[in-house]
Write a structure and sequence with these properties.
It is built from five helices and 16 strands. By secondary structure, the protein is α+β, with helices and mostly antiparallel strands.
C-alpha cells in the first residue's frame, strides 16, 4: 500500500517555484550532477554558436570544437582571456550574451547552494514499526524516536494522526484523518529517545480495530515532530508514516536503555528497531 504523499493535479500549471524546491530538496550528488551537466551543455551550445559563425576566435584552430568549447568556458566563467579572444563583431555579441548567461547562472547556483547549506534538517530516527501492546493495563499503540544528531531539540512537539478511507452516507469514499491522543505529546528537552504512547480507549479511533480491518481501509499512522534546534535556534521538523503492515500487534519495543558500571545510562541503538512478542500474542 502506498503511503500518503502529495501529487500534482492533472492540468495544474507548472510553476518555477516547484523547480526551485525540487533542486533544493535534491541530494547533494544529484544537485551537483545537474549543475555540472547544465554547465557542460551550455558551453557546448555556445561553442557550436562560435563555430557556426566561422573564424571568429583569434588563435583558434579552424573548425576546432575543442578550442571553441574552452573559449566558451573562459567566457562563461569570466576568467579573462589568454591566447584565445574574440575578433569579430558577431563573436563579441555572442560573448556578451554568454557573459550575461554566466553571471545569471552563477547567481542562481550560488543561491541554490547557500539555500541548501542553510536548510537545517532534523536527524530524527523513527522506529521501523509501531507496536500494539498493553501498557499500564491498557492496550496502546507505541512507537519511538531518537535524536541522531546528539544535540538537544527544545520544546519538541509530536502529533500522530490516523488516516483511513471512510464511506459517507451518500456512498462517497473519502480520506479522513483522526487525531491520536498521546500520553505525552510535548518534550521540553528531546536529547536521546522518546517513546510515544497512544492509549486505545473507547474514545480512540483505533478502538475495536484489527490488522485486517486497518488494511482494508488503507489505514496509516502519520507522525510529525516539530522543535527548535538548540545549536542554531532554528525550527526543525520531521515526519514519518506507518502503514498498516508496519504496525505489529502483540509485540513490544525492546528495552534499549542499559546502566553502565559508573551508574550512567546508555542507549543501545543497535536494538532501536527491535521488537519482541508478548505473552498475549
Amino acid at each position: 500500500m502506498a503511503k500518503t504523499r502529495g501529487t500534482r493535479p492533472d492540468g495544474a500549471p507548472p510553476a518555477m517555484g516547484d523547480l526551485y524546491y525540487l533542486l533544493v530538496d535534491s541530494p547533494w550528488p544529484r544537485l551537483l550532477g545537474i549543475i555540472a551537466a547544465l554547465f557542460l551543455i551550455g558551453n557546448a551550445l555556445f561553442a557550436l554558436g562560435y563555430l557556426a559563425g566561422g573564424d571568429g576566435i583569434q588563435n583558434a584552430r579552424p573548425g576546432s570544437f575543442t578550442d571553441a568549447f574552452f573559449f566558451s568556458v573562459q567566457t562563461m566563467a569570466t576568467l579573462g582571456y589568454g591566447r584565445l579572444a574574440p575578433r569579430a563583431v558577431w563573436a563579441n555579441v555572442l560573448v556578451t550574451v554568454e557573459v550575461l548567461t554566466g553571471v545569471l547562472g552563477l547567481a542562481m547556483v550560488t543561491g541554490l547552494v547557500f539555500a541548501k547549506f542553510s536548510r537545517l534538517t532534523a536527524r530524527v530516527v523513527f522506529s521501523r514499526v509501531a507496536v500494539v501492546t498493553r501498557h499500564d493495563g491498557v492496550l496502546a499503540l507505541m512507537f519511538r524516536m531518537a535524536n541522531a544528531r546528539g544535540n538537544q531539540i527544545v520544546e519538541a512537539q509530536i502529533r500522530a494522526v490516523l488516516a483511513r478511507d471512510e464511506t459517507t452516507a451518500e456512498g462517497e469514499t473519502m480520506r479522513r484523518f483522526h487525531d491520536l491522543g498521546l500520553v505525552r505529546d510535548r518534550n521540553p528537552l528531546f536529547t536521546l529517545t522518546w517513546t510515544a504512547i497512544h492509549p486505545i480507549t473507547a474514545t480512540s479511533p483505533l478502538f475495536g480495530a484489527t490488522p485486517e480491518g486497518l488494511a482494508a481501509v488503507g489505514a496509516e499512522v502519520v507522525v510529525s515532530l516539530v522543535g527548535i534546534d538548540e545549536t542554531v535556534s532554528q525550527t526543525i521538523h520531521a515526519r514519518h508514516t506507518y502503514a498498516s503492515t508496519e504496525i505489529v500487534w502483540g509485540a513490544r519495543l525492546q528495552d534499549i536503555l542499559r546502566r553502565l558500571p559508573d551508574g550512567r545510562r546508555q542507549v543501545d541503538y543497535a536494538r532501536f528497531h527491535d521488537v519482541e512478542p508478548t505473552a498475549e500474542r
